[in-house]
Structure formats: C-alpha cells, structure tokens
Design a protein that fits this description.
Elements: H1 11-22, E1 27-30, E2 33-39, E3 48-55, E4 72-78, H2 84-94, E5 100-105, H3 108-122, E6 128-133, H4 154-166, H5 171-183, E7 185-193, E8 211-214, E9 225-228, H6 232-247, E10 254-261, H7 267-283, E11 287-294, E12 303-312, H8 314-320
Parallel strand pairs: 3-4, 3-5, 5-6, 10-11
Antiparallel strand pairs: 1-2, 2-4, 7-8, 7-12, 8-9, 10-12
C-alpha cells in the first residue's frame, strides 16, 4: 500500500500539526500535552464535553473539537487508546468550571483509561460523567447492547451533547440528552477492502476480490458474516432490514441518517446507498428529516461504508440542528 507520509513513527504528530495549521481558528494544542487538542478559543461557564481515542479515524475523534461540539480531545496512536495522562489533560483543558462529560467508544483500552483519568481529576475537584457509545449492532445482540462497539453513531452523541452544553444546560441535563441520543442510535457497516497501518506496513485483514464482510469493526474486528459482493440495492436492502429489525421503528417515527465512508469509498457510491436507504424507509412511512453523506468516521483507507440511524424527538432534533463551528460538521 502506497501512502503519502514521511516517517511512519511521525504519522500522528504530523497529521494533527497539519490539522491545526489548516484550521487555526478552530483547533489548538493543549499547552501541557501535544497529544491533546482543544478549541482555539476556550469556552467559559459551561459543561465541558471531551472525547478521545486512537488515530486513523479522522474526523473522529479530533476533528469534532469546536464550538457547539467538543471542548477537547485526547489523541492516541493509530488504532490505540490515548494514555491516562493524555485523557486527564484533555479533561482539565475541557473543564470550564461546570464539570466535564466524557464521551467515548466502547473499547476496552479507552474505557479503562478514561475511568482512571476521571478518578485522577476527581481528586483535583473536577466532576465528570461518562457516556460509552455502543451503536454497532453487529458487535452484540440487542439484549446485550452494553457490549456493542461505538462507531459512527458517536458523532451524533458528540453533536447533541455539545449543543446542550453550549445552551448552558446543567451537567445532569447534558448527560440525560446525550444518553437519550446514545439509546436511539443504530449503525451497521460493510467492509470491501482492508486498510494498512503506517508502522505495520501490511493490511489489517484480508478479503478476496469478490468478497465483503458485513459488520466488520473499524479496527478490523470480525463482523456478522462474509459473502460475495452483490449489487448495491440488494446489499443495502439487507443492511436496512437488519437495522430495522433491531430498532423496531414505527411509521410515525422521524429519523436522521448518516451514510459514512470508511475511508476509500467515494461519494458517488455513498449516494447510491443513500438513494436505496431512502427507498427502504419510504416504504415503511418512516420520515427521514436529514441525511448526512460523507467521511465522518473512517478507518484509514479501508473501503466500505456504514449506515447510521438516529431516532429523533423534539429535543434531539433541536440540539442536532443547532449551529456549531467545526470544519467536519455542517448542518
């Protein structure tokens, strides 16, 4: 795999340096830790919203720092959790005096390190609450939802929590609405080809040229099944059926959907997917309020896509569509 990089060991540092140089009005390095990204202009007198995770998924996690979304983010190495010290720094830098809500994906290292970091900052007087996003329906059955991985649906939780905090809601209120969002998200993806980590130099998994994997995780975790590549409409029909069987939506429900590229899949293919998702939901009289199509949560240059569905109520809709300042999220 050919990559436009310098030394593989400098991949993370150079990519986040470029991010900050490209958007100096949005992002800044934390003064105490170069693996922590903050807003260029710190907020005040609001609940802080902080995340963190491994690199290789841009815009997740770092890209969603900005007014109306995240206050700070801890940046791990490629597909690796940030350290406890990095997360504690992100929490300190994201604290605006009213406590910090930590939002993270359901991955062992992230969960453990955030838990320890929250204990450290608690001893310093910073109050925290944590939401562990678990939207990947391929990774566990409905009755074991707490075991599910967090993937693209995490971005909806970032946005809704960030908007609630920006509206000066209390910590308990921000936590509640972010929890409501987390409980009303389902995501399912499909991988078409693998990615290659800069320092590893070899693919994370193997698929035959005519093969796909339904439900593969963003780090190459096993999915539901492998099968032969089919026409887009047949594939999307199956994905929608799995999502809707898990979600139990009714014909009076309103949703927003995200058609997300895992990295290499082009917009043209994503819009073919979006067309068919709309056709599936229309048949069931489920109203799609808004559709997001693009690269929102990636896995390096992995080819494939995911479909995320967020069931909306009035509060979630208000927060989702509120204004923000972030180069990777436009309402």
């Amino acid at each position: 795999m050919k990559k436009i990089i310098n030394e593989p060991s400098n991949f993370v540092e150079e990519s986040i340096q470029g991010l900050i140089k490209s958007h100096p009005d949005v992002y800044a390095f934390a003064k105490d830790n170069k693996r922590v990204i903050t807003r260029a202009k710190k907020a005040s007198n609001k609940v802080g919203v902080v995340s963190g995770g491994g690199s290789g998924h841009l815009p997740v996690f770092t890209g969603y720092v900005g007014k109306g979304i995240l206050d700070a983010c801890a940046v791990g190495s490629v597909f690796a959790s940030p350290s406890v010290d990095q997360i504690a720094s992100a929490i300190r830098n994201g604290d605006n005096g009213n406590g910090v809500l930590c939002i993270l994906g359901n991955y062992g290292g992230d969960v453990m390190n955030f838990e320890m970091a929250c204990e450290i900052v608690a001893s310093e007087g910073i109050k925290t609450k944590t939401i562990i996003v678990a939207d990947d329906i391929a990774s566990a059955k409905n009755e074991e939802k707490l075991k599910r991985r967090g993937i693209a649906g995490m971005i909806f939780v970032f946005k809704i929590a960030g908007a609630a905090a920006e509206a000066n809601l209390s910590m308990d209120e921000v936590f509640k609405i972010a929890t409501d969002a987390n409980n009303n998200i389902r995501t399912l993806g499909v991988a078409v080809s693998p990615c290659t980590l800069p320092e590893a130099g070899k693919p994370t998994f193997e698929l035959s040229n005519d093969e796909i994997e339904i439900g593969m995780g963003i780090h190459g975790e096993p999915g539901i099944k492998r099968e032969k590549l089919r026409k887009a409409d047949l594939l999307v029909d199956d994905l929608c059926k799995i999502i809707l069987d898990d979600f139990k939506l009714s014909d009076k429900d309103k949703v927003t959907i995200m058609i997300n590229s895992l990295g290499a899949t082009p917009l043209e293919e994503l819009y073919i997917v979006s067309k068919r998702v709309h056709e599936n939901f229309s048949k069931l009289n489920i109203e799609i309020i808004k559709t997001y199509v693009g690269r929102y949560a990636t896995s390096m240059e992995m080819a494939g896509m995911s479909i995320t569905v967020l069931k909306l109520d009035d509060n979630l809709k208000k927060m989702l569509f509120s204004q923000n300042e972030c180069p990777f999220w436009i309402n």
